[in-house]
């Protein structure tokens, strides 16, 4: 038989991990962790609402991030703006397949995979779908782990625009997609932070 | 190592009959699935995983303060050259260009990409710096057992900085940028990169050797001392 902390009136503090005794449900005051004094609740407050809002915003921004130019390389007055995908294709065509794969994974595959997984997890909780909780938890840990690697493209842009800044000879400029892409990365990281994986396991006890 | 009777660790999950005002530390809730676990003793140097969802519920209980402190100091010493010295140098038909972490941020700022500049500044400079600084402070006060009243805030900020510090991703960005520029001219690795590798190693050591739970328990002891 499995017993959760919540069934026993206990909650884990999100900040320090201390197991706290919760007050009776009718109590007016909010419970605070005796160790770190942060407000404690059974589950992350409004977890699903925040996750939905942040994920939908990220999906909307994914469109300009991929359609608009992210980088323009001008060499001796010649050069076209590149979107994320056309940059990957150019790398692939210039025999840099390994780097093309790295950029593709970090800038295209990871953000899309994160959003798809977030949607899946939220749909599972929202509509109480009978999916394997172990596998959903694995997916949740996976997106938490890979989320930060999407910043790769932005760091690379910051390096390239600074190093290749030589007036008429060669110049690299960032495009409007860079900001949209940065917003996608931040929003998906926050969405994953707000999602409480314990909501998945709560379905087992209903 | 999964927890279970086979490893000589008594672990069971049963309804409790008695509580103290706040739960004892042998009683834990899994952070990922909320399963209530009783962990009676974990041998030094081993970890404890949730039997239901395999989350780490109890990390290693050995804390090496000396390594933590040494790593934080080395990281801080290398930090200023790491963000100001050139990371990559590039030459093309007699023209030179180079970048450092800070000049990269400044270039984005002057290119009217202020928000992007702030994001890059946070993830590649501010978060790693405050992560190291707070690691240093935490290791120091733990060493001399003089925890200040604001210690819980230190730990919370340390945790937050840890999440936004992305120097390892920046290092990967250097490699990608290096290979991208190889075709068009000569690229050289600057001193900033070597310092950056040092800072990165210090950060990894700090993360490997710091035990947040240990720090929280020391704070709890301090709270009890203050009350008596």
Automatic annotation (TrEMBL), chain A:
Keyword Oxidoreductase: no
Cell compartment(s), UniProt: Cell inner membrane
Primary subcellular site in the record, as a coarse category: membrane
Domain of life assignment: Bacteria
Entry-linked InterPro entries: PqiA-like, PqiA-PqiB_transport
Alphabetized Pfam families for the sequence: PqiA
Cited PANTHER family: INTERMEMBRANE TRANSPORT PROTEIN PQIB-RELATED, INTERMEMBRANE TRANSPORT PROTEIN YEBS
GO terms under cellular component: plasma membrane
Protein name from the UniProt record: Paraquat-inducible protein A
Keyword Membrane: yes
UniProt keyword annotations, A-Z: Cell inner membrane, Cell membrane, Membrane, Transmembrane, Transmembrane helix
TM regions (residue ranges): 52-76, 96-125, 146-165, 177-195
